[in-house]
Amino acid sequence: MTTNTVTVAILGPGGVGGLIGALLARDGHRVVCLAGEETTAVLCREGLRVQSTQYGDFTTPVEADTLLREPVDVTFVTVKQTALPAALDRVPPQVLGDGIVVPLLNGLDHLAALRRHYPAGQVVAGTIRVEATRTSPGRIAHTSPFTALELAAPLADLASHLRHAGLDVTLRTDESTMLWDKLSFLAPFALLTTRYQSAVGAIRDERRSELLAVLDEITAVARAAGTPVTTEAVLSFFDRAPEMMKSSMQRDAENGHPIELDAIGGAVLRAAATHRIETPITARLVAELVPTASQ
What we know:
Layout: E1 7-11, H1 15-26, E2 30-34, H2 37-46, E3 48-52, E4 56-60, E5 63-65, E6 74-77, H3 84-87, E7 100-103, H4 110-117, E8 126-129, E9 132-136, E10 139-142, E11 148-151, H5 156-164, E12 168-171, H6 175-196, H7 200-206, H8 208-224, H9 231-240, H10 248-254, H11 261-275, H12 280-294
Parallel strand pairs: 1-2, 1-6, 2-5, 3-10, 6-7, 11-12
Antiparallel strand pairs: 3-4, 8-11, 9-10
């Protein structure tokens, strides 16, 4: 990956994948989006259209297909955890070649699943912090003033390409710490905004005591898992977040889509049980959201 351009596959060109793909395509890289027939047809005809508070509004052509048919340099896996098993059929292991696979999914459990499906050494852990939503096939609304990507590998060339395209990229050495750093914010953010159908500003102002209690529980689990995260550090991120910011879980619930309750809340509760950490408030929130997840 030392050339000036790379070939990138986007498995799931929704909010996150569509934004990354559009930025890379705009910067001159070859981007192949992998999706269902309807989305593929729209992308081939109209490209990716982005409305962004950070990058402006733009449209860029991309390739699209229902199946990866040739090796690429990197495949970003950006489907929802709930859609992962079926989506992997679009990237057959025998077609992958030497390319790396970078999942940008929520939670912890997807890495093991991907490393069973593909050569384990080619699956690189990644996380992203962003508020981006697919409003219709090929149309992406990016509403956060940041797009922060982290990769747990020494991928200097890829990081350079991503930065040149406009992404904030950090390379990490410890994938467990990287994943828990995100989950420590994401879990309380997703559970509370979805449970109360409120943006982050209302949660931190009107439900601050419950927010603090959940942060205490989840950061205790993260520390037991080896991540030196504190309630104060995560609360600081909450207090800096745009007031009207919503979690993707909340948006999915609002739109009647499956929510990633097990991938996010379930991951915390499983880790808590492993480390014998009491998490009664987190468990209550998860239990109260089960009916929403079952719809």
